[in-house]
Amino acid sequence: MPEMPEVQGLVDFLRLKLLPPNAPPAVVDDVEVLSFSVLKTANVPLDLLGAGPVSDVARRGKFIDITAGGAHLVMHLAKAGWLRWSDGLKPGRLRPGKGPIALRVRFAADAAEKPGFDLTEAGTKKSLAAYVVKDPLEVPGIARLGPDALDVDQDAFARLVASHSGQIKGLLRDQSALAGIGNAYSDEILHAAHLSPFANASKLGDEDVQRLFGAMRDTLEAAIAGASGRPAAELKDSKRKAMRVHGRTGQACPVCGDEVREVSFADSSLQYCPTCQTGGKLLADRRTSKFLK
Predict the structure, then answer these.
(1) Can you give the pTM of this predicted structure?
(2) Rounded distance between C-alpha atoms, residue 85 and residue 10, angstroms
(3) Which of 93, 201, 221, 254 gets the most CB atoms within 10 Å of its CB?
(4) Which segment of 202-216, 236-250, 273-287 scores lowest on mean pLDDT?
(5) Share of the chain above pLDDT 90, in %
């Protein structure tokens, strides 16, 4: 799932394409809905996006928000979605329901092949979402967002942790508490902080919380810096290569050399290093097990 760093990378890339510094802003020429499940709104017509030029491209948590023509095209890539840019999409409309493309946006150009992007989604579970709204707060996921993870200072973070009685990994992933962090970067942050993903948040000591706050900022800032300036096509591979534990089950921890282990759930998994995070003990690989704290 694209998280804050990759979404920020996509936003920065789209800004360069749609709001070029030495050229007029882009204008939406056409929006094709190719998967009827992707569009979650019906009150604002798609044509409104082309009523004026693009005026902003922003990130809201893990959402991409393109402002154009007095409306917002808000997109959430979910677990298996992605944005693919093309400087020249071939003319002609696509057939709905054929292939992975769920939404296509073309921008005006004096050429048959116009620039634009496709929203694609792999697999059979369709969670990719697009909204056309007058106000981003009309999108339920945005209305529920807590503060951006990088906008929270250390004192506010400490209060948030102290007030949460559940597991620390769950808190880091809770978008209503901290916006932008998902499964992958919560694994990376907890590894950097030397904390078990199942540690009880409210029972962490002051030093643990300070270390966790520093790990969160350092991990996210480094990942955003690594994504900055990269074309959209390179962002996923860049993320995978930078991971220390997430997605690296069975490989050696780059810090201590221990084997990276995995805990599997029904529709996801997490990775951790026993030596770095749990005092060498293994976490049981079942959702219903009694996990190590």
Answers:
(1) 0.93
(2) 10
(3) 201
(4) 273-287
(5) 87
